[in-house]
Amino acid sequence: MIERIETGARSSKIVKHRGVAYITGQVGEGATIEDQTIECLRRLDALLIKAGSSREQMLRATIWLADMSDFNGLNEVWNAWVPEGHAPARACGEAKLARAELKVEIIVDAAYDD
Length: 114
Known about the structure:
The protein has helices spanning 33-50, 71-81; strands spanning 2-7, 12-17, 20-26, 58-65, 89-94, 104-111.
């Protein structure tokens, strides 16, 4: 069974299937990479909870940066957010994001408890 949560015309915020919650990409507001990453991760926390999951259950994270020069700032916030011993598989690359002011977008897949 596939469960879709907060489904709109274009996408769902969460899609759950066979023990995995697929969380749509999240962005954040703010002037710096650190500010945007903090807000992005706050939004991911809320969606993980809504999916019946948590940071400890993350399987994979895909991170897009508008500019790879922000890599260290992203990692500073990310490393403090990820629970020790529970780091997901992760990829990080550079991409043109949806709006010029965006610096980061993070997509997470996580296990959830039935």
